[in-house]
C-alpha cells in the first residue's frame, strides 16, 4: 500500500527552486523491482494507492480512510505502508488502536530524503520494511526505518535530529 511518503516524491527543478510531486510508478515498487524482491518468499506484492499527501497534513479522516482500505482486503494479513516521516508514529499508533486490524501485521516506513535523490535512505528503508513485513510473526503496528524495526509503542523520534529511537 502506498501513500504519504518522501519515498514517493519527486522534486523537478523549476524557476522557483524545486517543486513537489509524487512519481509514477511509485518509487517503492521500483526499489523492490530493482532488488528483485517483488515475489520474495512466495509473497505477492499488491500495490494499492491510498492517497498522496505530505504527512504534515495527514488527518484522522485520512487515517480512517487507510483503515477502510485495509478492512476491504481481509485476506491481506501483512501490510507495508509508505508514509512520510513527520507523522508516521501517529498513523501507526492510530492503526494499532483499530480493533478490526488486530490480526494484521502492519509495517510503516518512509524516508528522510526522496528516492529520486542519490543519497536517499529510501532504498535501505524499503528493503528493511519489506523484509520485516515478511519476518514478523506477531500482529501489530511496526516502524521500519533508520536501521530499526520495532513495535510503534517502543519508538520515539528526536524532533531536533529527526532520528527514530527505540525506547529503553
TrEMBL record:
One Pfam family linked to the record: Asparaginase
Protein name as annotated: L-asparaginase N-terminal domain-containing protein
Residues the entry annotates as binding substrate: 55, 85-86
Ranges where the L-asparaginase N-terminal domain occurs: 49-154
Taxonomic source organism: Mesorhabditis spiculigera
Stored Gene3D superfamilies: L-asparaginase, N-terminal domain
InterPro entries recorded: Asp/glu_Ase-like_sf (IPR036152), Asparaginase/glutaminase-like (IPR006034), L-asparaginase_N (IPR027474), L-asparaginase_N_sf (IPR037152)
Amino acid at each position: 500500500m502506498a501513500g504519504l511518503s518522501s519515498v514517493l516524491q519527486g522534486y523537478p527543478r523549476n524557476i522557483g527552486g524545486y517543486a513537489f510531486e509524487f512519481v509514477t510508478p511509485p518509487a517503492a515498487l521500483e526499489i523492490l523491482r530493482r532488488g528483485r524482491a517483488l515475489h520474495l518468499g512466495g509473497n505477492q506484492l499488491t500495490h494499492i494507492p491510498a492517497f498522496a499527501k505530505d504527512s504534515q497534513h495527514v488527518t484522522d479522516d485520512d487515517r480512517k480512510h487507510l483503515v477502510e482500505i485495509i478492512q476491504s482486503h481481509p485476506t491481506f494479513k501483512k501490510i507495508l505502508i509508505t508514509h512520510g516521516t513527520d507523522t508516521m508514529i501517529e498513523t501507526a499508533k492510530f492503526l494499532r488502536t483499530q480493533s478490526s486490524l488486530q490480526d494484521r501485521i502492519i509495517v510503516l516506513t518512509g524516508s528522510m530524503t526522496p528516492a529520486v535523490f542519490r543519497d536517499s535512505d529510501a532504498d535501505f528503508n524499503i528493503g528493511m520494511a519489506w523484509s520485516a513485513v515478511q519476518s514478523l510473526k506477531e500482529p501489530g503496528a511496526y516502524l521500519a526505518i533508520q536501521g530499526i524495526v520495532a513495535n510503534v509503542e517502543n519508538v520515539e523520534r528526536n524532533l531536533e535530529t529527526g532520528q527514530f529511537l527505540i525506547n529503553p
